[in-house]
Amino acid sequence: MGEAQELFSAKRYAEARGAFEQLAAAEPNNAEAAYRLGLLAIRRDAPDDAVTWLEKATALSPRSAPFFQALGDAYGISAQKAGLFSKLGFARKCRVAYEQAVSLDPENIEARYSLFTYCRQAPAIAGGGLDKARVQALEIQKRDVVQGSLALAELSVAEKKYDDAFAILEDLRRSHPAALTATYQIGRTAAMSGLRLDQGEAALKEYLATTPDDNQAPLWAAHWRLGQILEKKGNPAAARSEFEAALKLNPTQPQLLEAMRRLNQAAPPSASGQPG
Hints:
Mean pLDDT is 93; it is low at 270-276. This protein has a domain at 1-62: Tetratricopeptide repeat domain (Serine Threonine Protein Phosphatase 5, Tetratricopeptide repeat, Alpha Horseshoe), CATH 1.25.40. By secondary structure, the protein is mainly alpha-helical. 76% of the residues lie in helices and 0% in strands. The chain starts with a helix and ends in a 10-residue tail after the last helix. Helix 13 (219-232) runs antiparallel to helix 14 and helix 14 (236-249) runs antiparallel to helix 15. The chain has helices at 2-9, 13-26, 31-43, 47-60, 65-81, 84-104, 109-121, 130-143, 145-158, 162-175, 180-193, 197-208, 219-232, 236-249, 254-266. The longest helix is centred in the middle third of the chain and has 21 residues, at 84-104.
């Protein structure tokens, strides 16, 4: 177990998978091994394997909030890939798993944020809704001002209350200057709304000068949002440059491929490689 966990922590995921598979074969009732194999399946976008391992992990350890949160993630990925008739079933299982995680550990901010995100994105028929998302955002804010404020800003964007979102994020930057995610979210809000584009551009350039950790928005996302802002400002050449920078970091991201397709249709690059 120790060696397998060290490989996992070192992000040597292929080797970690082999080590945990050996451990799970030798110890079929090892809930931690099943949990780690589920996480590794999520990482390689294999939702069927993820669900199998994480259902086993939660059955073996039914009081573990992180196990149920990960199971919710696996169901969520399954819902995205499922056909029309299976999608709703997986979505409901996703919500139930997140709710179980929160019930087991009400102070678990990550589990609450997962449930918040589900409620913000899912329709009422699947147990989602913005009112339910607000309940979770406020519960998060009681426990963590930064994460709760970010959730409330996301909710304001979802409701198209962009001025409210900017106000929340600006207050957060003033009160918690180290909250790097607030800087990114200002840029994201500008890109999505088409408002305060200069402010959004400056925020994203500031964010791109940092090294975000695994819990913060990846740099490819910041390049993408900056490209959207520059496109809205009427600078397709600069937008193309940002999209290309994003694609170097994440060459298969569908949103980036669509952004480049749209730009190429509007203004195909010349033979020299520069926009025509």
